[in-house]
Write a structure and sequence with these properties.
The strands form two sheets. Strands 5-6-1-8 form a four-stranded antiparallel β-sheet, with helices on one face. Strands 2, 3, 4 and 7 form a four-stranded antiparallel β-sheet that branches. It is mainly beta. The radius of gyration is 20 Å and the shape is elongated. The protein is built from one helix and eight strands, in the order ββββαββββ.
C-alpha cells in the first residue's frame, strides 16, 4: 500500500465493529417469613432491608436500598420479581444506567442476614455483563 501525497494518515485505536454490550444480571434468592437483611456491593453496605410477603413491596425495598449505595446510584440497577410467591423466591437485579452495558467485577453480597423462618438468602450471577465498545 503506498502513501498518497498530501494525505495525513490516522491510526485507528479502536478499529472493529462496535458492540452494544450486555447488562449484568444477578439473581437474589430469598426464603423467609420475616426480618431484615443487608446487601453489600463494592465495599458499601445497604441499610436494613425489610422482608415483605408482598412481592412488589419486597422488590421496591431491595431496589431502593441498592440504589442508595454510592457504588450503584439512582437508576444504576433495576430490580424485578422473578419467580416469587409471597416474598419467597427470586428477584432479578439488572445493572442499568451508569452501571449498564459493562462487565461488573463483583457480585452483590449478603452483608447481614437477620431474616426469620427458613432464613436463606443467596445471590448468583445469571448473565455476565459485557463492556460496550465504540
Amino acid at each position: 500500500m503506498g502513501i498518497i501525497e498530501g494525505v495525513t494518515a490516522e491510526i485507528l485505536n479502536h478499529a472493529g465493529v462496535p458492540s452494544a454490550g450486555t447488562d449484568e444480571v444477578q439473581t437474589l434468592t430469598i426464603d423467609a417469613s420475616g426480618g431484615t437483611f443487608k446487601l453489600a456491593f463494592e465495599g458499601f453496605i445497604t441499610s436494613a432491608i425489610s422482608w415483605s410477603a408482598t412481592n412488589n413491596t419486597l422488590r421496591d425495598n431491595v431496589d431502593t436500598a441498592l440504589e442508595a449505595l454510592p457504588s450503584i446510584g439512582t437508576g444504576g440497577i433495576t430490580t424485578a420479581v422473578g419467580t416469587m410467591t409471597n416474598g419467597v423466591g427470586t428477584l432479578t437485579l439488572t445493572f442499568a444506567g451508569n452501571r449498564g452495558k459493562q462487565a461488573i467485577g463483583s457480585l452483590v453480597t449478603v452483608a447481614n442476614n437477620s431474616l426469620t423462618g427458613t432464613a436463606t438468602l443467596s445471590i448468583a450471577e445469571t448473565t455476565p455483563g459485557v463492556d460496550a465498545t465504540f
